[in-house]
Amino acid sequence: MKENNTDKINNNTKKKTKKSGTLFRLLKYALSDYKGQFAVVVISIIVSAAANVIGIQFIQTLIDNYITPLIGNQNPNYASLLQAILTMGLVYLTGAIATYIYNRLMINITQGTLQKIRKEMFNHMQRLPIGYFDSHSHGEIMSTYTNDVDTLRQALSQSIPQVFSAIVTMVTVFIGMVTTNIYLTCVVILIVIIMTFVSRFFAKNSSKYFVGQQESIGKVDGYIEEMMNGQKVVKVFCYEERSKERFDKLNEELFKSSTKANTYANTLMPCIMNIGNVGYVLVAVIGGVLAVNGLLTIGSIAAFLQFIKAFTNPLAQVSQQLNFVAMALAGAERLFKLMDEPVEVDDGYVTLVNAKEVDGKLEETTERTGLWAWKHPHSDGTTTYTKLTGNVEFEHVSFGYVPNKEILHDISLVAKEGQKVSFVGPTGAGKTTITNLINRFYDIQKGKIRYDGINIQKMKKNDLRKSLGMVLQDTHLFTGTIRDNIRYGNVNATEEQVIAAAKLANADRFIRHLPHAYDTMISGDGEGLSQGQRQLLAIARAALYNPPVLILDEATSSIDTRTEKIVQDGMDKLMKGRTVFVIAHRLSTIKNSDLIMVLDHGNIIERGNHEELLKKKGMYYGLYTGAIEIE
Q: How many whole angstroms separate alpha carbon 242 and alpha carbon 285?
């Protein structure tokens, strides 16, 4: 169905409103902390433009009043001419100083503004929910920090000041032209009208393709990041040719949009300059005719020829810089889109506090007693304290990542303090999803999850997560020393505590064989360490964190059988006295679980301990005996 004219008008209005809103928001960032400097920039631009016009007008005076009278003079006196030239030089020097001042200040304003934007963007990103990062590629997000921010740098430091300077220059030059000769001014107006139509044509098309270019850059960066992270998988499955084909397709889209954008942008300047040259010739011819008829002086013609150059050159600059402004606005829209993403909502009011027991009752304390309690304020003004023990209960929980598409159906379970609860089942059954709900990475749609008898919806997310430890299948390490990575969840831990945690996870032995032991620097997500060693560090990190509830999501999946036996002893020590949720494909690691949940398509189809489930001879029996493959 074709779009009618009204729809087109409405869409164009929305686009213009969006762009103007983006520009206003961008300028608001620049003005918020640099109002004084920005005012100096504006004044300097006006002074620079005025100096240029005054200098051009002075050419007329110089020729008509100082040079022409000296022609044919037998005894010329050059004193007044030299004085006039010095005055003219002083005017141009003032303009040059003003130009330097506003360019220097704009560098400071630009870098300060970008620093503020990057800081706010990163701080905002830290408050986004996990779901945002699950639905956006890391490369595309990185492109926002690099490519889009760089376009803003160019626009703020160069394009926007040049556009403003050009507009001020054209206004002042136009006033100068009108006061010099109205007839020649009419010729210039005609030339400007032609330039405006040509500029609009090229700017409109280049702007459209510059927006597409920024989007394509984000896609290319996202794909490159994905291929770099998955390079081993690419090699194993001989996917090189297909990955190159996909990259070539994305790169071709970037090539087309960039080529078209730059074709229009680079064609614009020569067209404008040539139209300006035509105007220059017309002014010279018409001015010559007027001068012959005594309607114009030689000085006026010389000044007006400078005026037309001073007028058309800024117009060409404006046309050129508008392309970069359009590209910057496209980057700013992507940047502000990230900053406008809704942050993770936390409306909880139950907090985790240090507590002590007085006369059989818990009281809040500022001392580090090792005893934690949930501080629960009630509507009647009273406050109760509940000891943190690690009891977790699911009551008829249903959940879906997207509306109207449930992947967990009516899940009910109870994990008591110190129990080990394991989840098994095919991929996609909902095992990891259950653990994501415990720490409120996602909020449920139906049912309740209670932690120590309190609905977790009432708990502050940070406080809830402080009580939970996780060891994931994909271990992530950070640039820093081995010690820093183990202390990631407990930065105040002592050296003895770090070493004790490493020994508990059986990581101490391999750490001491590294070049600088615990001071060994690692980077690139643990580059140089085996996957098993990375996993041991993650287990040591969890041991040092010392949470009452522990979630192990395929925690030993990357460790070989021999290492697994070594680690299992440490894991058993780590799990002792804690409520533990385990997701495992190796059923041998969960035989000693207090409760095993068998999931299939988001439903718990079997539950019990190892012996009870074997007697049922259901899915668990089939998985354990190998009759049914776990995938």
A: 64
